[in-house]
Structure prediction request, 713 residues.
Amino acid sequence: MVSDVQALVQRAQANDRAAFGELYELYCPKIYSYIAYHLNGRAEAAEDLTEEVFMKALQNLGSFQFRDVPFSSWLYRIAHNHLIDHIRSTKKQQSVALEDAEHLLFEKDRLDGRLDRHTLTAALSKITDDQRQIVLMRVVQGLSITETAKAVGKSEDSVKQLQSRGLKALKRVLEAQGGATAA
Amino acid sequence: MIDPFDAALSEFIDTLPQDAQAAQDLLDASAPFTGQGDLPALAELTTVLRSVPPYEPRPEWVAASKARLMAAPLLPPEKRGFTWLGSMFLPLTHLSWPSFSLPQLPQLVPSPMFARAAVALGIVFTLASVARDNQGQNPILQVTTSQAPVENAEQAISSAQQEMARLAYQGQVAGVEVKGSPRDVVLLSKSFELAEEAIDKAPPAEQPRLRSQLQSSIRAVRFDGLLEGITNGSTLQVAGVAIQADAATAQQLRVGQAVSVLVTVGSGGKLLAVQVAPNDPAPSAAPSAPASAAPAASSLPLTTSGGTAPQTSSTNKDAVAAASPAAVPASSPQTSAPTRGRDASEPVQTSSRVSSRSNNSPAVAVTAPTEPVIAAKVDKPDKPDKGDASDQAPGSISVVAGAATSPPQASAAAAAAQAAAAAAVQSAQDAASAQTAAGGAQVSGSGPQSGGAQGGAASAGSAGQAALQAAAAAQSRAQQAQSAAAERASQAVARTLQAREMPQLSVSLPSPSSDKGKAKDAKDIIKSKK
Prediction:
């Protein structure tokens, strides 16, 4: 997998747009999901930001080197920085919009008591940014500890601590909200 | 140090499969966190979170987005290391100068910007014109450049003439020569030099007129000084002033000699010697005046008129001399001042004459034609015929001064004093000559003035020696009296000048060897006059 990604990146760096297309198809759902969790599930904003992230990646692909960080970490770092810039520019939206809330209720009813992503999104908004970032990357996105550490620019031990604290905080939030957890 | 709990949880997350059911099976099968606090609950939570379906983009958006990315142009890759600088200066690189459009003429209403531009242009043109002028002259002044040299030359000529007029006012002698100092001569030379330089810069048409104007001014100046050196055989260095003279004249002079030089300013400010006269005592003495009176006469700033001093004491060998030929006109040898030694209080009323009585009191009256009386008298000993010349002073000098009101009067008084001193010396010399003529004969009791020498006596030898000694002593005293008289005469004249309201003030100056009675007489004279 890693070798395939490395080959694709090298081809893309050689101005192979098809290789970059493959990289896009590979990482676009993850980046979109990561951004969508941070944006409380707003699909259009997540789409715009995701496209901008990949545009930045395309423009700066020549400066990427595998010896520093994995490509996934480099891509998540771009996404996170761009997300921070976007949140700063549009003001942080702590609360869920009305239509989103209605959608959450509808989906919650439809999922019949199981934890859905909107409930999770609402719970994730209650914890800190660092904890949310680590929990999303590690648990939801499935990045390794090394990739997560490279993406957030922290040590692996710090990532493990943040991961544990983030999960405990998220569990408390979910218990407080009465949300169901998988039994 | 990492917490074992965190490490175990991290390992569980790493092994957690992406599929939700597989994850739940792993959790149920392994139950890895039994009895470890929150760890089983957190593992269960992670399994639940992993089972939550992620947000998925719309397929149509993914296709469209991919298409846009495939068609997006690639910018040139940024250089590593200074990317932040490139991003910082990137906006600057996209800057472009705005296109200035000049306003149309009808819109050139005086605006601050237009006024500043006009002023700036004016300054630039002014500076450029000044810089273009190599001579550094003000271009505004160059408009009248044709008149400037002429005016400068005329000013320089005027300055030279003023310098000459100043010297003439201070030291003109008989309207012919100008007496000055070496410094005056140098300044005058410089003035003429500058004037000639200014004339050279004047237009050629104006130069003849300016030169004639400059040459019309008097430029002859006399000054005294020591001859410090002769260079090139004809250049005299007198008191630090270089003067061009004839070679023949220069050969006749010797270095260290006091000279009186009449110089004129030649072309280029050069000083040319018109007349160089040694200022030594002997050569400039009047023909009939005693030799000892010559220095005083030559040192006085009086012009010579060629007169001869009357010899009024031929019968008794009392030396009577004029202070100078000018002070004693030849046509007025009248005698009017009865002056014995103790009668010196009587004012001398003579005018332009030298008087002397035939007795033992030679007196010299020196007057200027229109000035009050200044008289000097040499008093002989009262009894010169006793033959005791060694005990007697050769005479006291009395200066009787009137109301002297000008420096020439003071000079005349000093000359009179000098003449009186010369008379005293002459009397001593007469005495010596009498002894010499006697050839060792005895000197009669009539004194040296009688001139009679009688021989035959046995004591003639010793008497002659005594007479010689007396004559020598008299000569030395006469010299002392001469110097003292000159000084006291000047003091007397100064006092006279201060007492201008006193028409006839007589001051008696006794010689150092005279008796105190004469001094007392002088005081009595002053008291009586007061």
User: Anything to note?
Assistant: Residues 95-99, 101-113 of chain A have pLDDT under 50 and may be disordered. Chain A touches chain B through 50 residues (CB under 8 Å). The longest helix of chain A spans residues 17-38.
